[in-house]
């Protein structure tokens, strides 16, 4: 096999957080609920030249290698008040980088990639003096059929995500310790953004890194998970020194369903003995949709200008958690940036 041909969009070290360092994992197929025992992790959440070529894969590996040690440290911490600034920064970088590197992210960003590509081609057509007006019109008619290759755009999104990860530093870091007899599962899009406080808002995006009410959920083991939570919009009951012990099976089930909803193809879990449990959860969620959740809208500003508005729709599921308290934002709210907390201009 060519070097770096099989490229993972979930790193193999992450799988080993769940299987005690082994080479196999149990999984459920999202489309039909079938489970498979001891699937080799080398073949999971990967595709041939997913990132385009071996050089890009090498750069991705260099970036992800920076996150292994701090994630391992955080998993075993008993007091998050001792979390160093460096590990905090690496944690939020790990969260956004993992979120943007998956197949799910590629699918959700494709509408925007295609839109920008078609705009550029249209500009090239309109400014090409060698074309007649009839030829321009004919070429413009082909624009809806054009699609941009996904690798370059996803690479740009991944790079920008790390640059702008500091936007999440104001969120509270909570290490969730699962004290129940059922494990956390993870899907092939393991970092999930949700915003239950703004679930009534459907005319614009509420999953941006500066969105008020944002929650990032990231399981990092069968009995550990990271939650980044907006501390102004949510009250988290039971947190002590950054740790939250969860003892309610329904809380675990709700977080696991969130993972299943976010997954595209596969849901992973640490032991085949939990197959019936995971299938039961899947039965409540269903096979899901392969449609992109990315939305592109052209909004007219005035007679001469239009604004391209791109956002990701929320998942059709909001976990009901016994430890989370909040007030929903009204459907007509224009509260769009957490910086507004400090400006006194909350809508």
Structure, described:
This protein has one domain. Helix 2 (54-75) crosses helix 3, helix 4 (103-126) packs across helix 6 and helix 7 crosses helix 8 (275-285). A hairpin with a 5-residue loop joins strand 2 and strand 3 (35-40). The chain has helices spanning 12-16, 54-75, 85-100, 103-126, 133-140, 150-163, 249-262, 275-285; strands at residues 6-8, 24-29, 35-40, 46-48, 172-178, 186-187, 192-194, 215-221, 224-229, 234-236, 243-246, 266-269, 294-300, 306-312, 324-326. With 347 residues, it is an alpha+beta fold. It is built from eight helices and 15 strands. It is globular and about 70 Å long. The mean pLDDT is 93. Strands 7-8-9-5-11 form a five-stranded mixed sheet, sandwiched between helices. A four-stranded antiparallel sheet has the order 3-2-12-6, covered by helices on one side.
Secondary-structure map:
Elements: E1 6-8, H1 12-16, E2 24-29, E3 35-40, E4 46-48, H2 54-75, H3 85-100, H4 103-126, H5 133-140, H6 150-163, E5 172-178, E6 186-187, E7 192-194, E8 215-221, E9 224-229, E10 234-236, E11 243-246, H7 249-262, E12 266-269, H8 275-285, E13 294-300, E14 306-312, E15 324-326
Parallel strand pairs: 5-11
Antiparallel strand pairs: 1-4, 2-3, 2-12, 5-9, 6-12, 7-8, 8-9, 10-15, 13-14
């Amino acid at each position: 096999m060519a070097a770096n041909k099989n490229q993972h969009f979930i790193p193999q070290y992450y799988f080993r957080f769940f299987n005690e360092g082994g080479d196999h994992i149990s999984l459920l197929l999202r489309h039909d609920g079938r489970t498979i025992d001891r699937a080799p992790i080398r073949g999971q959440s990967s595709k041939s030249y997913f990132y385009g070529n071996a050089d890009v894969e090498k750069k991705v590996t260099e970036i992800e290698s920076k996150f292994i040690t701090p994630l391992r440290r955080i998993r075993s911490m008993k007091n998050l008040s001792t979390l160093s600034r460096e590990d905090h920064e690496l944690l939020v970088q790990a969260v956004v980088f993992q979120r943007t590197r998956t197949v799910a992210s590629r699918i959700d960003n494709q509408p925007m990639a295609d839109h920008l590509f078609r705009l550029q081609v249209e500009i090239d057509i309109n400014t090409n003096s060698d074309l007649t007006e009839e030829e321009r019109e004919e070429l413009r008619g082909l624009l809806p059929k054009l699609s941009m290759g996904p690798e370059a755009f996803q690479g740009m999104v991944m790079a920008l995500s790390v640059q702008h990860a500091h936007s999440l530093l104001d969120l509270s870091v909570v290490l969730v310790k699962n004290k129940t007899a059922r494990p956390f599962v993870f899907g092939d899009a393991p970092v999930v953004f949700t915003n239950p406080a703004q679930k009534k808002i459907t005319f614009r995006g509420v999953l941006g890194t500066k969105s008020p009410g944002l929650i990032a959920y990231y399981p990092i083991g069968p009995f550990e998970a990271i939650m980044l939570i907006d501390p102004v919009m949510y009250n988290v009951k039971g947190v002590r020194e950054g740790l939250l012990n969860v003892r309610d099976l329904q809380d675990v089930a709700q977080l696991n369903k969130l993972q299943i909803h976010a997954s595209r193809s596969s849901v992973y879990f640490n032991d085949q003995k939990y197959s019936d449990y995971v299938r039961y959860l899947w039965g409540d969620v269903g096979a899901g949709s392969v449609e992109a959740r990315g939305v592109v809208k052209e909004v007219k500003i005035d007679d001469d200008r239009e604004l391209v508005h791109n956002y990701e729709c929320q998942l059709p599921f909001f976990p009901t958690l016994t430890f989370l308290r909040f007030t929903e934002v009204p459907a007509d709210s224009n509260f769009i940036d957490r910086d507004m907390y400090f400006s006194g201009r909350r809508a």
